[in-house]
Amino acid sequence: MSVDDRLGPLFAALADPTRREMVAAMVRDGSTSVPALSSTLPITRQAIAKHLTTLHDAGLLDRAPSAGREVRYSLRAGALDPALAWLGETDRAWEARLVRLKGSVERGVE
Amino acid sequence: MASDVKREIEVEASPEEVFEALVTEEGRERWLEEPTREIHVESIEAPPRLVWWWAADDAPATRVAFEIVAVPRGTRVTVTETAPSFPTAMLVAAFAPVFA
Fold first, then answer.
1. Which of B17, B18, B60, B21 is nearest to B37 (CA)?
2. Are B85 and A17 in contact (CB under 8 A)?
3. Structure pTM?
4. Inter-chain residue contact B81 with A77, CB threshold 8 Å
5. Which residues in chain A land under pLDDT 70?
6. How far apart are CA B62 and CA B99, in angstroms?
7. What is the mean pLDDT of each run of 10 residues along chain B (100 residues)?
8. Residue from the list B7, B84, B86 with its beta carbon closest to the beta carbon of A94
9. d(CA B18, CA A88)
10. Does the distance separating the beta carbons of A100 and B92 come in below 8 Å?
């Protein structure tokens, strides 16, 4: 899958403040679960499960069953790589475009 | 880490000439080399500011803002492209422990 294919779901998943709060909880605690999140977030367990599915589908989470059948969610290392790649590619692209813009305008002025 | 990409260059021409190369399709064709991207110009305040939105293929649309300012030797152009609808800085900060 190309970087561009992954960008849409990744950015969309992280555009939501509730989901960002969940990500922050996983950073803080290492992993989390629906019961753990439902004690801190003012939304239903169903809503929490849905948000976690969105984050998982965007490639941001790993999930693993733990003792007591509870599913634990944690952040997947490297999940942000597509976003970092976008920043690098965009920076290099503008560096080259501005050089061409300068050449084009200065040629027109002569 | 920044939440967007920022680049600048100085051009030996007037701000109006630079603006023309950014705002018109004919002008852009001479340097942009992005024939597949559709550009939607959001705001034109003449120099010094121009904002457009564009997208490549199925990627999310991004915002591109230009600042076109006269300097002693011509014009300084600053371009800022904002990462698609998410606060990169916050995210990178959030993921920092994962990368550490």
1. B60
2. no
3. 0.65
4. no
5. 1-8, 80, 109-110
6. 26
7. 77 95 94 91 84 79 92 96 61 49
8. B7
9. 25
10. no
